[in-house]
Amino acid sequence: MNSAIHHLLADGPPQLLPARELMAFTLGTHILLVPFGVALPAITLLMHYRGLRKGDAVALLLARRWSAVMAVQFAIGIVTGTVLSFEFGLLWPGLMGRWGDVFGLGFGVEAWAFFLEAILLAIYLYGWRRLKPWTHFWLGLPLPLAALMGAFGIVAANAWMNTPRGFTLDPSGNPVNVDVRKAIFTPMFGPEYWHFVVGVILTAGYVVAGVYAVGWLRGRRDRYHRLGFTVPFSVAAILTPVQFVLGDSIARSVFHKQPIKFAATEIVWKTDTHVPEYMFGRLHPGGSISGGIRIPQLDSILAGFSPDTKVTGLSSVPASDRPTATQATIAHWAFDIMVTIGSLLILLALWYGWCWLRRRDLPGSPWFFRCAALAGAACLLTVECGWITTEVGRQPWIVYRNMRVSEAVTDTRAASLWTMFGIVVVVYVLIVGSFLTILLKMSGRWRRADEEALTGAAAEDLEGDTPYGPRPLSTTGGRDRGEE
């Protein structure tokens, strides 16, 4: 254990480890909410459009319920996102103090997008009772665009940290002559942004579909569950092979723009051609690899489409300028887990597509729905693994080849940071527990409302009006419920 901590610290100051762990925990928690904040509005509006276009009350009901989930998720995201914004300044003052003027615009764009998204979400939720159907839909359409704008700002900032551009350094080493356009549109921005956007959309699709897959396995074979599964799963299935291609593209971009990070994710020690690919395995400090599956020449072929492609190794730079063996192994495992899950999801998407093209129906095997129920959790795992690959593979740099993580960290005592870490863990456990409790209560209330509707009993105490349905008069004042 002590040896692992030593390799992670890599001779940094004592406060480096708690600062890293605190940032990793908060970001790792927040990032699980990101797919829903970015992609759930688009999936909801797709279902909303279907309901209006086809006059489908079930689709409208699903869209309205999903919009309620969006609201809860957004509220939780406010808390976790705000904590992260404070941590950038409190934990990494060296980064923000020196480089904030260069890449800080990305955070500004994300902040503006956040406020715009809050306003649009409020209008969309309000519109279910007050607005005309198509007016309501068109007013909700900018919501996913605002979410994508927020993602634009964050990914731009991260891409700059990976491939910093748009500045020159004065004799003191401080950035001057900032070119905002170059600082935003760095070489890694395009590959990172599209890989991120497609990834969060298919993740949200698989997670939402997984909820209805569980209901299907429990015998709920009504149209509500069928439609709730089919629409988001179809979106995710279509995007899965696209994401695999984008993932291959971003890996090749890393090969060209960040060769040492590529060497870490592929645990390549010596610069050479005909480099083998290792599936999993562990890199040791001397360069030896234990475990894993070795595939001859494949790494060179994947990097440059030829076994003669030269792949830069970790040993080509001093030890102080590269990830440690432990860090490289972490990045490598995260990358391989991501690739493995992506490959399995392609098989699941092909299974679904084959059955749909042959007989316009869902697969009949319960194993398909078991796999579909697990796909959402697997995608959330890939989201975490993608972040780990991006950040751990860049070590020891917080700004690639310009600032080390140890130079950016706060000088606050390690004991204070560990105390803060403990408090944040307790608060986040309470927040996540509250989030899950609210979702479960909402789900139970909706299920009871559906059961009441099937028996013909009044369900108004369990759920509001059916979207765009009749608003019955109250018995006390003659006003409809939407006007009380």
UniProtKB/TrEMBL annotation:
Region (Disordered): 457-484
Source species, domain of life: Bacteria
Membrane topology of the entry: Multi-pass membrane protein
Protein name: Cytochrome BD ubiquinol oxidase subunit I
Keywords: Cell membrane, Electron transport, Heme, Iron, Membrane, Metal-binding, Transmembrane, Transmembrane helix, Transport
Family as reported in the entry's similarity comment: Belongs to the cytochrome ubiquinol oxidase subunit 1 family.
Record's subcellular location: Cell membrane
Transmembrane parts of this sequence: 22-47, 68-90, 102-126, 138-161, 193-215, 227-246, 330-355, 367-389, 417-440
